[in-house]
Design brief:
9 helices, 6-stranded mixed beta sheet, alpha+beta
Length: 265
């Protein structure tokens, strides 16, 4: 096994890491296998993918993703819906996992095996995203040149915490998930990137703009009711939605907005 460590001069997020990894490996291998550092392949994971290497009209193969307790992580494999306000991923179902293979639209960058010749056609992951939805965006491009096939006997383990960094707060009889101020920066990328994707791909333009307005108003109401640092939080969410609409990718902006006191010292 050959391991090549590629240090980067700055933190470019998960998206920047996948961009650089794919760029470095492109044209050197027939298939590129993408995964996070907290993913573990099971002994037969790659073996179960091998029979599909030469199948026609395939852009990528995906393993079934499970957590540390072997519960299926349905939300990491699914189907696109461009008819709603934002491009949404409809999760695979239990029935989808009972077949030998399932044609899907999207697989997260944990256990997706990409055919290298397709990369020549679509390019590299979008490094400007920094983190969040870069896999969704890349799968949209992959699907333009072939199927993404879920191989259910191929299993990959992901030790993730789906609600890590959040807590619940109750006011006016309503309980809501909130994110601490020092962890809020990560929300920016999901909002900005999904807004950008919506503007680019959603087929229902009216629904898209109505969804953006509704989500923004609900975010502001939530801040007013539940949160501290209200002015900075409102400014933060305003920039996140606006930057997605205006296609602005300043990945240092969220921390500048939220923690500018620290940066000025």
């Amino acid at each position: 096994m050959l391991i090549k460590y590629i240090p980067l001069n700055e933190n470019t997020g998960g998206a920047g890491g996948f961009y650089e990894g794919v760029k470095q490996a492109h044209l050197k291998y027939d298939w590129l296998w993408l995964m996070d550092d907290d993913a573990e392949v099971t002994p037969d994971c790659l073996y179960e993918l091998k029979p599909y290497f030469n199948q026609e009209n395939i852009s990528a193969l995906a393993s079934l993703k499970v957590d540390a307790n072997r519960n299926i992580l349905f939300h990491h494999r699914g189907y696109f819906n461009f008819q709603k306000g934002l491009p949404t991923q409809e999760h695979i179902t239990l029935n989808d996992t009972k077949t030998k293979t399932t044609k899907i639209d999207m697989a997260s960058f944990v256990g997706i095996l990409i055919k290298d010749e397709i990369i020549t056609k679509i390019g590299y992951p979008k490094k400007e995203f920094f983190i969040h939805a870069d896999d969704l965006e890349y799968c949209i491009r992959l699907r333009e040149h072939g199927q993404i096939l879920l191989i259910n006997k191929s299993v990959i383990l992901h030790k993730e915490g789906s609600v890590k960094g959040t807590f619940t707060k109750k006011k006016l009889g309503i309980t809501a998930n909130r994110r601490p101020y020092d962890k809020l920066w990560i929300n920016y990328y999901m909002i900005r990137n999904l807004t950008w994707l919506g503007k680019k791909y959603t087929k229902n333009r009216q629904s898209f703009y109505m969804t953006i307005i509704k989500n923004y108003i609900l975010s502001i109401i939530g801040i007013i009711i539940y949160d501290d640092h209200k002015i900075n939080r409102i400014k933060f969410y305003t920039h996140a939605y606006n930057d997605g609409l205006r296609e602005k990718f300043d990945n240092k902006k969220p921390k500048k907005i939220l923690y500018q006191e620290k940066y000025s010292r």
